[in-house]
Design a protein that fits this description.
The chain is of the alpha/beta class. It has 15 helices and 23 strands. 38% of the residues lie in helices and 20% in strands. A hairpin with a 6-residue loop joins strand 3 and strand 4. The longest helix has 22 residues. The termini are far apart.
Length: 499
C-alpha cells in the first residue's frame, strides 16, 4: 500500500459518523428509535447506524420546514442576503473538502481522487452559482396598455421535497438545493439509504453558514417508507426527484393521491453514442466512449451505454475499446490511483452481473471483462465489460444497467443510426461524431434527447440545463431554468384610472 493510500485508510479509520437525522436545526434520532446499517461497498463493513426515517419523521421535518417558510425567516430575506449565506455555505463545503470526499467514497465506493476533484467542487460550485444568480433575476411587467400595470413576479413555492439517488449524492442534492434555497423555499431532503452520510453533513455546514434552522432538513430512510411519505405529504408543495423511471412513475401517482404537488422527475437513460465513418479520429471517439461509460463504474444515468458505430470503422473502433477497457480495472477506492471503484452495494453488483449474463444468453459477445473481481476485499467490484454483436432489441441495449457495461451496435446508413438511436424509451443524452458539419447538425436535430453532444461527450457546465425527453422525465436541473421549478408565477393587476 502506498503512502497516499495509507493516509486515506488511516483517516477513514478515525472518521466519526453521525447517522441521526437533522430536523429543525438539530440532530435527532428517528421518532421510533429505529436505525439501519450504512454499509461501505469498498469492503462490506458497517460504517454507522443511520436513523430509519418513516412517516412520523417526515411529518416532523415538513412541519419544521413549513414553520420556517411561514414566518419568513428565510423567504423574507432579500435576495442579496440569501446570496451571502449560500456563498458562505459553498465556502464551508470547500473547507470540509477532505471530510466530505471521504464520506462520499466510503459510502458509495467511488475513487477518492474523484470525490475530491469532481464531487466536492461541483457541489460547492452549484450552491455558489445559484447564490450569485438570485439577485440578478428580474421579474416582469406585462405590456397591457395604459389602463393597467400588470406585475409578473416569482414567489417561492413553500416546502420542497428533494429525493436524490446514490450515484452522485452530493451533486444531485446540490442541483435541488441550489435553486430551491436561492428562491426562498424550505427543503426536506431524503437521501438514498445507500449513501446518506454526506447529505447529513451538508445540512450541518449550511447551519454553520447561517442558514436559519428549519429551512434545510434531512431525513434518511428507505424509499418505500420515508420517500413515499414525503411524496404523499399534503404540506409539501413540490418534489424534485432523481432516480429510476419506475420510481418516477410512483412520484406522479403519489402527487395525484395527495395534493397535486408539482413533480419534477429526472429519470433514467440509455444514451446513444453515434460514430459515423467520416469522423477521422476513430481512436479518440473510442477512448471517449470508454471513459464516459466506465467513469463512476458506469453508475451514471447519462452514461453512453449504446455505442452505434458505422460498420466500415467498427473493427478499428472496437480494437481501441478493447485496449482501453483494462485501464479502468477496479481498484482500491482509497488508493488514490484507481480509475473506478466499487459498485454501490451487493444488490447492484448482482444486477449488473445479471445483465452481463443476459447479454451472453441473447447472443452478444463479451470482448472484455464481464466478471466480478476483488472478491477477497468483501466489496462489490465488476470488471469493465464490452459487448459486440449487440442488436438494439437485446435487454442490454434497452434497459438501464447502471454499471460498467458498454454495448457496440453496428449500422450502415445515417437513417438507420438515427432510427435505432431514437428506438428507446429514454431520451436523456446522446452524442454525434462526424467531421461533416451538415451531418452533425442534421443528426443532432433528429435525436430525441435533452442534450446532444457533438464530437465529444459529457462536457458540462452549471449554466446549461440537465434533463431528458420521453421516460427520462420532465425535470431540468442546473441553469437559470431550474429556478422556474421552485417558484410560482403571480400576476398583480393594478388598474390605472384616466385623469
Amino acid at each position: 500500500m502506498n503512502a497516499q493510500a495509507e493516509s486515506w485508510h488511516a483517516r477513514a479509520a478515525a472518521l466519526h459518523f453521525d447517522g441521526r437525522a437533522l430536523v429543525a436545526g438539530r440532530r435527532v434520532a428517528a421518532v421510533a428509535g429505529e436505525t439501519f446499517d450504512c454499509v461501505s461497498p469498498i469492503d462490506g463493513r458497517t460504517l454507522a447506524p443511520v436513523a430509519r426515517g418513516r412517516a412520523a419523521d417526515i411529518d416532523a421535518a415538513v412541519a419544521s420546514a413549513r414553520a420556517a417558510f411561514d414566518d419568513r425567516r428565510w423567504a423574507g430575506q432579500p435576495p442579496a442576503a440569501r446570496k451571502k449565506v449560500l456563498q458562505r455555505f459553498a465556502e464551508k463545503i470547500l473547507g470540509a473538502r477532505e471530510e466530505l470526499a471521504l464520506l462520499e467514497t466510503l459510502d458509495m465506493g467511488k475513487p477518492i481522487q474523484y470525490s475530491m476533484a469532481v464531487d466536492v467542487p461541483a457541489t460547492a460550485r452549484c450552491i455558489a452559482w445559484y447564490g450569485e444568480a438570485i439577485d440578478k433575476v428580474y421579474d416582469e411587467i406585462a405590456p397591457t396598455g395604459a389602463s393597467a400595470l400588470a406585475l409578473i413576479q416569482r414567489e417561492p413555492m413553500g416546502v420542497i421535497g428533494a429525493v436524490v439517488p446514490w450515484n452522485y449524492p452530493m451533486i444531485m442534492a446540490a442541483w435541488k438545493l441550489g435553486p430551491a434555497l436561492a428562491t426562498g423555499n424550505s427543503v426536506v431532503l431524503k437521501p438514498s439509504e445507500k449513501s446518506p452520510l454526506t447529505a447529513l453533513r451538508l445540512a450541518e455546514l449550511a447551519l454553520e453558514a447561517g442558514l436559519p434552522e428549519g429551512v434545510f432538513n434531512v431525513v434518511p430512510g428507505f424509499g418505500a417508507e420515508a420517500g413515499e411519505a414525503l411524496a404523499l405529504h399534503a404540506d409539501v408543495d413540490a418534489i424534485g426527484f432523481t432516480g429510476s423511471t419506475r420510481v418516477g412513475r410512483k412520484m406522479l401517482e403519489y402527487a395525484g393521491r395527495s395534493n397535486l404537488k408539482r413533480v419534477y422527475n429526472e429519470l433514467g437513460g440509455k444514451s446513444a453514442f453515434v460514430v459515423f465513418e467520416d469522423f477521422a479520429d476513430v481512436a479518440r471517439a473510442a477512448k471517449t466512449a470508454a471513459g464516459s461509460l466506465f467513469f463512476n463504474a458506469g453508475e451514471s444515468c447519462n452514461a453512453p451505454s449504446r455505442v452505434f458505430v458505422h460498420a466500415s470503422i467498427a473493427d478499428e473502433f472496437i480494437a481501441t475499446l478493447k485496449s482501453e477497457a483494462p485501464k479502468y480495472a477496479p481498484g482500491d477506492p482509497l488508493g488514490g490511483t484507481a480509475e473506478i471503484g466499487a459498485l454501490v452495494d451487493a444488490t447492484q453488483m448482482h444486477t449488473v452481473l445479471g445483465y452481463i449474463e443476459a447479454g451472453r444468453s441473447e447472443g452478444a459477445r463479451v470482448l472484455s471483462g464481464g466478471r466480478q473481481v476483488m472478491t477477497e476485499t468483501g466489496g462489490y467490484y465488476v470488471e469493465p465489460t464490452v459487448f459486440d454483436g449487440v442488436s438494439n432489441s437485446m435487454r442490454i441495449a434497452r434497459e438501464e444497467i447502471f454499471g460498467p457495461v458498454l454495448s457496440v451496435i453496428r449500422f450502415s446508413t445515417e437513417a438507420e443510426a438515427i432510427a435505432q438511436a431514437n428506438d428507446s424509451a429514454y431520451g436523456l443524452q446522446a452524442s454525434v461524431w462526424s467531421d461533416n458539419i451538415n451531418r452533425a447538425h442534421r443528426v443532432a436535430r433528429s435525436l430525441r434527447a435533452g442534450t446532444v453532444h457533438v464530437n465529444q461527450y459529457d462536457e458540462d457546465d452549471i449554466t446549461v440545463p440537465f434533463g431528458g425527453f420521453k421516460q427520462s422525465g420532465n425535470g431540468r436541473d442546473k441553469s437559470l431554468h431550474a429556478l422556474d421549478k421552485y417558484t410560482e408565477l403571480k400576476t398583480t393587476w393594478i388598474r390605472i384610472d384616466a385623469a
